[in-house]
Amino acid sequence: MKGFASIFWSFIFLWACLLFSVHGLRDEKTQSPIKRDFCLIAHRGFALNGKQINPENNPKSLFAALKEAHGVEFDVKLSSDGHLVLHHDDVLGYPFVGSGAIEELDLAKIMALSFDREGSLAFLGKGLGLADLTYRPENIPAHPAALTELLPWPSGKRAFLELKLAEGASLGQVYKYAEAAEAFIAKNNLYEDFTVISFHPLAPTVAKAIAASKGKYLLTGLDVREAQSNFGYLLGARLLAFDYFLPPLQSLDQSLLAQANVLGVGTIAWSALPLAQERALVTKINTSNLRGQGLILNATAGFGEGN
User: Fold this and answer.
1) pLDDT mean over 54-67
2) Residue 164 confidence (pLDDT) above 50
3) What are 109-113's contacts with CB under 8 Å, separation 24+?
């Protein structure tokens, strides 16, 4: 995380100047259209309902999740020929046969990958404490999906599009991700429903600047993995005109929410915790009214009615 923090603070002043002086994102005509109403978001499309679950970052999973939640969060990688693909990891490992790094494959090669179904059901829930759940085999993807498979997007439903840049990504690659995300949103007129987020602070910032150059406002969010030093990240998020701050669920408390409110940044906490831990934290959050502007959860159905 030291390398990440170094990148973050090294470029914070440059991009703050870009956003405030060149594009004027904080003037009266371009005030943030941030949604302050609480939203329940399904993490990677995990919409748990009883004992069933769909695979992550899969169009069928994401659309199914929208029946239980206000929106979905999903990860995208960039193919070698500039297409955004629904996937979390840098490398396409098991259960995809003949795979490699997504950024080194063009879309045609990615779509041609075959899928090894043997043992794949257990694989898909690994690490999230979901072994007791039943998967829907018919929804297991034959290959990673192109982002365009989410079209047409249902009006009024929220989408948190996470740019999954590789650690140490070059500035050129950051720009390619940002440009591809903004172009997709612009082409399909999804500015009101889509929010671009990332652990890399420059990617959403560049995407916002590209949108601003077209006279559009793009909602953005800054992901953080650490539960410490949130105020520093919050301040950076404010200076870089981020609309949302996305801390891990376990770091959510009254102090953090108060600081975010003072700075005018929305707070949407996210969870990648095992199911039992997530449920315990959600119970505490509901009891203490710590929900902020939203929660990104694996077990959205267990939270309550999403619509």
Assistant:
1) 85
2) yes
3) 110/79, 110/85, 110/143, 110/144, 111/143, 111/144, 111/146, 112/143, 113/143, 113/144
Q: Facing residues of 163 across strands?
A: 76
Taking CA atoms, 281 is separated from 31, 53, 272, 289, 291, in Å, by 33, 21, 12, 12, 11
Residue 10 confidence (pLDDT) above 70: no
Pairwise CA distance, residues 204 & 150, whole Å: 20
* Under 8 Å between Cβ of 259 and 231: yes
CA–CA dist 169, 165 (Å, integer): 6
What does the block give as tokens for 134?
Answer: 């039943």
What secondary structure does DSSP assign to 86-126, as a single string? E-SSSB--TTEET--BGGGS-HHHHHT-EE--TTHHHHHTT
User: Which tens digit of pLDDT belongs to each residue from 92-128?
Assistant: 765 565 567 889 999 998 887 766 554 444 445 554 5
pLDDT in tens, 224-239: 987 656 788 899 999 9
The dihedral of CA 162, 79, 171, 3: what is its sign? positive
Helix (H, G, I), strand (E, B) or coil at 214: coil
User: How far does CA 75 lie from the centroid of its chain?
Assistant: 6
pTM of the model: 0.85
